[in-house]
Amino acid sequence: MTPSRRSSSTEQAAHPWQQADIRSLLTRAALAVGAGSPTDAGVSWAPLEAAPRPIVLAGGVPDPETLPVADLSEAFRRVLEASPQDALRYGGVLGFEGLRSALAERQGRSEGISLQSDNFIVTNGSAGAIATICDAFVEPDDVVIVEAPTFSGSLRTFRGHLAEVVPVPMDSRGLLPDAVASAIESRRRVKLVYTVADYHNPTGTTLSLDRRRELVRLCAEHQVLIVEDAAYSDISFGAPPPPSLYALAGGQGVLKAGTFSKSMATGLRVGWVQGRQDFIEALARVRFDMGTSPLLQRAIADYIGRGKLETHLREVRPLYAQKCDALCRSLAQDCGPYVRFGRADGGFFLWVECVGARAQDVAREAAREGLVFPVGSLFYLDGEQADTAHVRLAFSTATLEELAQVGPRLRAAFERAVGER
Amino acid sequence: MTPSRRSSSTEQAAHPWQQADIRSLLTRAALAVGAGSPTDAGVSWAPLEAAPRPIVLAGGVPDPETLPVADLSEAFRRVLEASPQDALRYGGVLGFEGLRSALAERQGRSEGISLQSDNFIVTNGSAGAIATICDAFVEPDDVVIVEAPTFSGSLRTFRGHLAEVVPVPMDSRGLLPDAVASAIESRRRVKLVYTVADYHNPTGTTLSLDRRRELVRLCAEHQVLIVEDAAYSDISFGAPPPPSLYALAGGQGVLKAGTFSKSMATGLRVGWVQGRQDFIEALARVRFDMGTSPLLQRAIADYIGRGKLETHLREVRPLYAQKCDALCRSLAQDCGPYVRFGRADGGFFLWVECVGARAQDVAREAAREGLVFPVGSLFYLDGEQADTAHVRLAFSTATLEELAQVGPRLRAAFERAVGER
């Protein structure tokens, strides 16, 4: 064939793709999370209508005024001045040794255990940590036990690994070990239990010490891995949370996912898995992305090394406690008959039960008042079937003045929503 | 039970994990890439023995002296000053819109096609791009056709998705379309063809225009996706490479993986996939890591927006051409009878055939001379069975003075290795 004939046949041949159904090419796992279905918008928040001065109680994101911008900027400048060639070169899938040893020192101290840098692998935030754990350990049809409700992003990750997700109920002291035991005993192939033990997302509860011990015992007995999502563990309002599951288990059978997203900034996208060395090595094997940026990791290590992280946390913890109280007060004053909730001991969220109205209706009417937050059903596997009663209010990004306005606005939303019931 | 009894039962119960075989918990995919096998060290380079002034010709990494440190430092400073809250907050799995539109503009111009930001998703380098493509499209036992030899990291990624990898031979004008056609026709479930069409890793060859057209026609006819790895495409020594497969296909059925690793710095870990919008949306669905750092992405967008990338490339291209020539000259002068190679038109590598000695022996003896490079077998699925004749010499990081020393050192290595044959 001549080049020109080939060229014209190429142009013709491009057509088959235009009619092609992408769904026939996608993996089962990709289809399970909605790939190839452009109409599914994924997680949706209540839409913000044309309201004056909207108040956003949506995401688990630090207060933008607290972001350590100057110190981070200085850290990047210093790293690029002191070690530009190391910072701008592949750093390996385990991550920068200096950051991993800083994590070993810090987590070892706060958890009262002995850790080395080999107990850590650096990931794209704790979301990347959980995805990497699934890549290594979750085979299609493996059972993953989760709290009901739980973080919607992790639910998506488990579904995207074709796990059978089994929700287990929780109460004000966290998930119920007896329910975990029943789930383990009634099913084959239970691979892991996923728990946000400290300042739970979305409920704000903290797993009690006796239940922690029972969970560790139970999972060791059945050789079920515990994935401890510690995203919010640094954000305590008073006493620190109970000992970590990792510490209680002596590091055996627990993979702990951590992140700088809540303690510093979500945009850093730097998190980690803490685990037994052979587990960390296994996670490194399934990292195909050649690691995250050593520049970011070195800047954070510099920031930690100069004591900035602890100083920063000492500043932001009382702020979040104050914000939590401001929201609780505003709700109690103005929404008394419509809401039930318990004050969190840390983290970014208040989990509010709606009395006399469906959460979906409350969220929709609240949006008309300029108040944006997710309904509780987003945090369940079965969505609305499982929960029409709760909403999750994040108090982390709104100002104290805005939080004082939540009660009146939510009351107006309830007054309309109750009528629809 | 009392707390103290629980505590002691916890300590006892941790023991089952100490005897546990991690392999019984790992996925088939993780086991396929060596997870749970601590003795397998993965890709190994020839060890550097105690030699004076070692010369490293190992990785596909830019010259450290060229790293745009000052401009990047300035870009980070500027982004953190101008938009700290956006830079330090979740940026979404698709990536920063400003970087994606800069990519659309730049790639559209250089490839002579029309692209929008919706044609791009930002990833952890091109390695992350290829892993994400596999997450969405490669089901266990799907066939992935690759060039023989090919980039070892991508081979690992395909194996880690349980693909059946089918190598296809290449010559000095790149992979052989007839061999691709045979592979497609002889097997079910051929899902994709992976090619480094420009300045191939490890061989340095560039796929000819007529073969590009034939490959595009063939793959469209059989609805086989093309994954075009363009990691080295910006590093041309003279004329730019032929039109991209993406451009020849009118964007249909081709996913093109790009990166700033070679044009700027490997430590940025920022790459992308360029593809039809519905394919990009599908890739976004299988990203469970909540995206890479918007701070990095904004700093790079700032750098590009100020015209720095094109200026930088105009500076480094002649340098790499000069280095390639220096290495070719040194080999021709000192290793004439022992080596056969073709000069590359771009990229970082020279693929050298060893005459009269096994590549493994040459590499081992070269290490004793202080010369470090990988043997060719690392770039084949079947390793030593497939290739005992080649070595890959990267000329990108060594200085011109060092490159002039390669010939004499390699000659000494050959002289000893030939004797062993």
Fold and architecture overview:
Two copies of one chain form a homodimer. With 421 residues, chain A is α/β, with parallel strands linked by helices. Chain A folds into two domains: 55-61 and 311-420, Aspartate Aminotransferase, domain 1 (Alpha-Beta Complex); 69-306, Type I PLP-dependent aspartate aminotransferase-like (Major domain) (Aspartate Aminotransferase, domain 2, 3-Layer(aba) Sandwich). Helix content of chain A is 43%, strand content 14%. Chain A has helices spanning 3-13, 15-19, 28-32, 69-82, 84-87, 97-111, 125-137, 152-159, 177-186, 209-222, 245-248, 277-285, 294-305, 308-335, 359-368, 400-420, and strands at 55-56, 120-123, 143-148, 164-171, 174-175, 190-195, 225-229, 254-259, 271-274, 339-340, 349-354, 371-372, 390-394. In chain A, the strands form three sheets. Chain A has an eight-stranded mixed sheet with strand order 2-9-8-7-6-3-4-5, with helices on both faces. In chain A, β3 (143-148), α8 and β4 (164-171) form a beta-alpha-beta unit. The longest helix of chain A has 28 residues, at 308-335. Chains A and B meet through α1, α2, α3, α4 and α5 of A and α1, α2, α3, α4 and α5 of B.
Features:
homodimer, 421 residues, alpha/beta, Aspartate Aminotransferase, domain 1, Aspartate Aminotransferase, domain 2, eight-stranded mixed sheet, three-stranded antiparallel sheet, 43% helix, globular
Provide the CATH architecture of the largest domain in chain A.
Answer: 3-Layer(aba) Sandwich
* Major pleated sheet of chain A: 8 strands, mixed
Q: Which residues of chain A sit in consecutive blocks of at least 5 with pLDDT less than 50?
A: 1-13
**Could you give the order of the helices and strands of chain A?**
HHHEHHHEHEHEEHEHEHEEHHHEEHEEH
**Could you name the CATH class of the largest domain in chain A?**
Alpha Beta
Q: So what's the oligomer here?
A: homodimer
CATH topology grouping of the largest domain in chain A = Aspartate Aminotransferase, domain 2
Q: Which superfamily, in CATH terms, is the homologous superfamily of the largest domain in chain A?
A: Type I PLP-dependent aspartate aminotransferase-like (Major domain)
Share of β-strand residues of chain A: 5-15%
Distance between the termini of chain A: 73 Å
Give the overall shape of chain A, derived from the CA principal axes.
globular
Number of strand elements of chain A: 13
Q: Count every helix of chain A, treating DSSP H or I runs of 4 or more residues as helices.
A: 16
Largest interface: A-B, 101 and 101 residues
Structural class based on helices, strands and sheet pairing of chain A: alpha/beta
Number of domains of chain A: 2
**Main sheet strand line-up of chain A:** 2-9-8-7-6-3-4-5
